[in-house]
Amino acid sequence: MEFIIVTEQYYPGIALIQLNRPKELNALNRKLMEEVRDALQALDKNEGVRVIIITGNEQAFAAGADIKQMADKSAIDMLLIDQFSTWDQIRRTKKPIIAAVSGFALGGGCEFTMMCDMIIASETAKFGQPEIKIGTIPGAGGTQRLTKAIGKAKAMELILTGRFLSAEEAHFYGLVNKVVPVEMLMHEAVELAKEIAQMSPVAVQLAKEAINRSFETQLDEGLAFERKNFYLTFASADQKEGMQAFIEKRKPTYTGK
Ligand code: DAK
């Protein structure tokens, strides 16, 4: 491994992957991402590992995909390189992944943290999708996952301006689980991992799978489901009572029928 450091038993049952290209702020070149994919596949098969933590260093989790590696590529080059297959493998990891983030998590770095299952951030963490500033847009799920995580208005603002979100704001908007002082980052990530590691690994895997499923339902499907339930309320006595009470300017009496 050239660009990552893997510690299989960082703590009993807990593996650690550290992104290790510090001079380039852990810019995610293709080799680094392939190494991450290979490490995750091996850890997924390793029965001694229950939870995986991925971290960077104090300056950066990752400042994005490697711009220097992409700059002169054509659309067809990008298509043929097909980095998506590597990134897709990462999100197929069955075991829970906690991202422990300090410093920059930008562009592909931010998208990488969102492909993890939970995020513990240090007070110095900065999240953002600044691709717009270099003439492109997020390519590894940023427009979808960030929008789902923090809502349309804020995601629009971040993606269209390239502004960063502080750790505090990221917590406020629900992007991260917890914000801690830098020196507590790994401790906090391990505490969370330890708790999960005590649970049935089968149940943890199935729960992770089920939660991720909720992101795969299309809006149309969700709206159709909502609509059927909306119609169904019109089969209830309570809907009749509620609307009649409104018209008669009185308090409704519901029977639950
Ligand atoms: N790529 C390559 N090198 C980078 C880099 C990056 N994303 N970010 C930083 N570096 C390098 C800098 O070039 C510099 O190298 P030297 O000049 O020393 O050789 C070194 O790291 C230190 O950076 P700075 O000197 O710029 O440090 P500062 O503290 O002044 O600034 C910064 C820190 C994070 C604000 C700044 O470095 C910055 O703006 N970086 C770029 C952030 C960015 O635009 N990120 C988005 C990149 S586009 C896909 C998957 C993913 C993606 C696309 C497709 N597929 C699966 C197909 C994702 C795309 C992106 O992420």
Give a description of the structure.
- With 257 residues, the protein is α/β, with parallel strands linked by helices.
- Helices cover 47% and strands 17% of the residues.
- It has helices at 30-45, 67-70, 75-81, 84-91, 108-115, 142-150, 152-161, 167-172, 185-197, 201-213, 219-233, 237-247, and strands spanning 4-11, 14-19, 51-55, 60-62, 97-101, 104-106, 118-122, 126-128, 164-166, 178-180.
- The strands form 2 sheets. A 6-stranded mixed beta sheet has the order 1-2-3-5-7-10, with helices on both faces. It has a 4-stranded mixed beta sheet with strand order 4-6-8-9.
- Helix 1 (30-45) runs parallel beside helix 4.
- 35% of the residues are buried.
- It binds 4-(N,N-dimethylamino)cinnamoyl-COA.
- 4-(N,N-dimethylamino)cinnamoyl-COA binds next to helix 2, helix 4, strand 6 and helix 5.
What's the count of strands?
Answer: 10
Order of helices and strands: EEHEEHHHEEHEEHHEHEHHHH
| Low-confidence residue ranges | none
* Shape verdict: globular
Distance between the termini: 63 Å
Strand content: 15-25%
